[in-house]
Specification:
Shape: globular
Number of helices: 9
Distance between the termini: 84 Å
Low-confidence stretches: 278-282
Largest sheet: 6 strands, mixed
Number of strands: 6
Radius of gyration: 21 Å
Strand content: 5-15%
Strand order of the largest sheet: 3-2-1-4-6-5
Oligomer: single chain
Structural class: alpha/beta
């Protein structure tokens, strides 16, 4: 049965069967990013934007602001910022700047029961990203995101992913559904870095001052360097590793299972080291 993209009412990801997704992506791929966002605002349930304050997410934020102004409404898409506790100071400054410029508050989520680096490292140890990278990713990104989604009743998320960022992002569609049933919208999927940067400058969008120092993709300070290749803007992330994602866009159930297994193993090792009695023959 043909799918009418104009009259389609999406109540949940269950409505997005493979056939419906294909039809929608065929339509959405012909639209400009602002048009995609307008469609999403009108059609997707529980729509939020999660952003690490990268340039692509900032473009979406600015476009949504303009749509909201045109419709004479407050900012139409709630914002989520995942504070890993290891962001650059410039990134935190940008969050505050965007709140002022766009008159909007971010929902900020941190690792569970942690307000600062001291809290986190007291519980999980120092430089966890080196000793157990998968656990680090789960604790600072994946778990806080899932907590945000549950508390805010998020059903659909706007991301800042683009095909030109390569890696796992090389073939992403505009609209998709992940393993948890979360609807993900990638409104700038077909834009390249130059298109994003041109929009930022032309529209005076606030951006991370590290960009002026040569950075392109900016995450935690310990995993972010200037790109090593002009053809790959994310080549400065996790330099020297076979890694292109932090876990936020990977299979949640696999990451949670790996985290639980690692936690259980650590607890067993701790019990063994503490509980094994000293034996003596005399």
């Amino acid at each position: 049965m043909p799918v009418s993209t104009g009259s389609l009412r999406i109540q949940s990801s269950k409505d997005l069967t493979p056939a419906v997704l294909k039809k929608l992506n065929d339509h959405l791929s012909t639209l400009e990013p602002r048009e995609i966002l307008e469609w999403a605002i009108d059609h997707l349930p529980g729509l939020h934007q999660t952003t690490a304050m990268g340039l692509t997410g900032l473009v979406s934020l600015d476009m949504i602001n303009k749509i909201s102004i045109d419709r004479e409404q407050p900012h139409l898409v709630p914002l989520i910022f995942l504070d890993t506790l290891y962001h650059f100071d410039e990134t935190h400054a940008l969050v505050r700047r965007c709140e002022q410029v766009y008159n909007v508050k971010f929902h900020i989520y941190k690792p569970a029961d942690c307000e600062n680096v001291k809290d986190f490292e007291s519980e999980h140890g120092e430089r966890l990203w080196e000793t157990d990278e998968a656990t680090y990713d789960f604790l600072v990104k994946v778990e806080p995101a899932q907590r945000a989604y549950e508390q805010l009743r998020v059903q659909s998320i706007i991301t800042g992913r683009r095909r030109s960022q390569k890696g796992d992002r090389g073939n992403i569609p505009v609209l998709e559904v992940d393993s948890t049933g979360m609807i993900k919208l990638n409104p700038l999927a077909f834009w390249d870095f130059q298109q994003v940067w041109t929009y930022v400058r032309a529209n005076e969008v606030p951006y991370n001052q590290l960009v002026d120092q040569g950075y392109r993709s900016i995450g935690d300070w310990h995993s972010t360097k200037k790109p090593v290749s002009d053809d790959d803007e994310r080549s400065g992330r996790w330099s020297g590793k076979q890694k292109t994602e932090c876990g936020l866009h990977q299979d949640y159930f696999k990451m949670r299972a790996a985290f639980v297994a690692a936690k259980k193993k650590k607890e067993q090792q701790q019990r063994h080291s503490i509980g094994t009695p000293f034996s003596s023959d005399y």
